[in-house]
Design goal:
- This protein is about 35% helix and about 25% strand.
- By secondary structure, the protein is an alpha+beta fold.
- The strands form two sheets. The chain has a five-stranded mixed beta sheet, with helices on one face. It has a two-stranded antiparallel sheet with strand order 1-3.
- α1 packs parallel to α6, α2 packs across α4 and α4 runs antiparallel to α6.
- It is globular and about 40 Å long.
- Bound molecules: adenosine-5'-triphosphate (ATP) and magnesium ion.
Length: about 170
């Protein structure tokens, strides 16, 4: 069921006629509703989430629904791949002409050799484990695509056993 939904979404956003529904909105208006969806899962797994969004960030032009999907995918991964007792943090900052959003976890991390492939469709580091955790390997390819649509980009840094940071860069226009 998840696969079908993901595929539908991916093909929808890749179809030619697809355009962004841009709104100039505060970042918190995108992040807060998504955080709410993960409240129970975080509690049940004993993973703590810290939110650090400074006051005074400019509003940015975003497709609200697509950007919610981006945050949703990154948080879903962070929770899946972070063992109990771990931490996740979401923080935002201004970097030159970009708004930067970091989703950081203290999870299992990713070996360097996988990093160049992570955003490819259906790519999963550990197929057995990902299947157990319910993944199809589409989440990050959707994230990358949506950031590209916004003239932005996504980057990752990771250390095995230490955790991962996924960083989004969205232009402030
Ligand atoms: P889906 O998102 O379609 O449910 P998925 O989560 O397996 O499936 P992606 O979100 O595209 O797929 O992630 C690809 C792979 O990257 C994952 O299977 C996992 O191996 C690795 N990965 C992604 N995020 C993290 C993370 N925060 N920590 C460790 N590994 C990660
Ligand atoms: Mg995922």
């Amino acid at each position: 069921e998840y696969l079908v939904n993901d595929l539908l979404t991916l093909s929808a956003i890749e179809s030619k006629g697809e355009t962004l529904q841009l709104e100039k909105i505060p970042l918190t208006s995108v992040i807060n509703p998504v955080l709410h969806l993960f409240k129970d899962r975080l509690e049940n797994k004993h993973v703590r989430l810290n939110l650090n969004i400074p006051e005074g960030l400019p509003d940015i032009s975003l497709d609200r629904i697509k950007m919610e999907q981006v945050i949703l995918n990154l948080l879903d991964n962070a929770i899946k791949f972070t063992p109990s007792g771990g931490n996740i943090s979401v923080q935002a900052s201004l970097e030159h002409d970009f708004l930067r959003i970091d989703v950081k976890d203290t999870g299992i991390g990713i070996e360097p050799k996988h990093l160049p492939h992570l955003f490819e469709r259906f790519y999963r580091v550990d197929k057995g484990r990902s299947r157990e955790l319910g993944g199809t390997g589409l989440g990050l390819s959707i994230v990358k695509h949506i950031l590209q649509m916004h003239d932005g980009r996504v980057a990752v840094e990771s250390d095995v056993g230490q955790g991962s940071i996924f960083s989004l860069f969205i232009p402030i226009t």
